[in-house]
Design a protein that fits this description.
By secondary structure, this protein is of the alpha/beta class. The chain contains 13 helices and ten strands. It has helices spanning 2-24, 28-37, 50-60, 65-80, 102-114, 135-138, 156-160, 179-191, 218-258, 261-265, 278-296, 307-317, 323-346; strands at 90-95, 121-124, 167-172, 193-195, 202-204, 208-214, 269-272, 301-305, 357-364, 367-372. The strands form three sheets. It has a five-stranded parallel sheet. The chain has a three-stranded mixed sheet with strand order 8-9-10. It has a two-stranded antiparallel sheet with strand order 4-5. It is globular, with a radius of gyration of 25 Å. One of its GO terms (biological process) is cellular response to heat. One of its GO terms (cellular component) is cytoplasm. Keywords: ATP-binding, Chaperone, Hydrolase, Nucleotide-binding, Protease. Residues 276-358 form the Clp ATPase C-terminal domain.
Length: 378
């Protein structure tokens, strides 16, 4: 009875939230007795392994340790269940240029918590750039078609998550949303609730982790880093101390030029992503090839490759301006196209059991070539 199970889980979650609100209202003199009455072992309604989640994220998000550490710090607070029960569990703004892993970080978290990288409520804010599109988020106002239904583009199940796992919300490219949409989000960030314009329905974000992404200040950050490198050649010992201060000042100025102070002040954490460095490119290529092998499972294939293949794809695809997306395009252009041609012409099913047919990729005369390693085939 999936429907009944969902109803029971939702009821249990609401009861837990009600208990959290009640505990917060307890008078100071009762706090000590509450602690004494609690179990010796610390318990929480959230049940997930922080170490396992972070291990998976760190294996997928390369060169962004500051951002990854911010997620780990957030998960500790959520796992302990000590966040303000009247607000979202966490509200974060991820800043940085395109292709550095902002959205991928959210996907990796969803995959680690739910086993599915798409298990989060994603709102592409660039689709809400016009004033009249605000109804997509807040619902049609009274008197308009659809007002009574209170329908929006929000996915309530993804927002509320499960009783023991927080929901995840991604507001992508938030700087492109209209002022009306941003104004509607103020209440979400402040008390974790969004009531549609008709008043017929209310969405709760109090069990949600909210991420926003933005390319704001990307150019300024790049200019700052380049100028800092020049200065470091002269006075390295002075600049190392002031790096964080200078970058924080640049980012804050850009944010306040784009968003209202009320909006910025409701964000729990702002993380600036680094540009993808050359030292991280090889590992990103390896990750893309690992993903390719997972896609090849359905065809009973396995691809191995030389280190020269990784180097070849890295050199052909690295573009600091476009980040990991440029590397993915290089994998497609320099390997996947030729692998597809080879498989269409040469793939044969293995004779024994379910063992995959193994193929090996290597470099010859500046191109990637393939050969079959499994010969016991039909």
């Amino acid at each position: 009875m999936p429907f009944l199970n969902e109803m029971l889980a939702e009821t249990e979650r609401k009861n837990k939230n009600a208990e959290a609100l009640k505990d917060e209202n307890t008078s100071g003199q009762d706090i000590e007795s509450l602690h004494l009455a609690s179990k010796a072992r610390f318990s929480s309604r959230f049940q997930f392994d922080i170490e396992a989640v972070m291990s998976a994220i760190r294996s997928e998000i390369i060169g962004q340790e500051q951002a990854v550490q911010a997620v780990e710090d957030m998960l500790k607070v959520v796992r302990a269940d000590i966040a303000d029960p009247r607000r979202p569990l966490y509200t974060a703004l991820l800043l940085g240029p395109t292709g550095v892993g902002k959205t991928e970080l959210v996907r990796s978290l969803a995959r680690s918590l739910y086993g599915d990288a798409d298990s989060f409520c994603r709102v592409d804010m660039n689709t809400l750039s016009q004033e009249h599109y605000a109804a997509s988020l807040t619902g049609a106002p009274p008197g308009y078609v659809g007002a009574k239904e209170g329908k929006t583009i929000l996915d309530e199940k993804m927002i509320e998550g499960r009783n023991n796992i927080p929901g995840i919300v991604l507001l992508d490219e938030v700087e492109k949303a209209s002022k009306e949409v941003l104004h509607a989000l103020l209440n979400v960030f402040d008390n974790g609730m969004l009531t549609v314009a008709s008043g017929e329905k209310t969405y709760s974000f109090r069990n949600s982790i909210i991420f926003m992404t933005s390319n704001l200040a990307a150019y300024e950050i790049q200019s700052y880093e380049e100028s800092r490198k020049k200065i470091l050649l002269k006075v390295i010992h002075r600049c190392s101390r002031k790096k964080g201060e200078g970058l924080e000042r640049i980012v804050k100025k850009k944010l306040l030029n784009t968003f209202s102070p009320e909006f910025v002040n409701r964000i729990d954490n702002i993380t600036v992503f680094n540009w993808i460095g050359e030292d991280a490119v090889g590992r990103i290529v390896e990750l893309e090839l690992e993903k390719l092998n997972r896609r090849l499972i359905k065809h009973s294939c396995l691809l191995t490759f030389d280190a020269d293949v990784v180097k070849f794809i890295s050199n052909a695809g690295y573009d600091r301006q476009f980040g990991a997306r440029s590397i993915r395009r290089s994998v497609r252009k320099n390997l996947e196209v030729f692998l597809a041609e080879y498989l269409l012409d040469n793939h044969q099913v293995a004779l024994e059991g379910n063992d995959p047919v193994k193929y090996h990729a290597s470099i010859f005369n500046g191109k990637i070539f393939f050969k079959r390693l499994t010969y016991n085939v039909k």
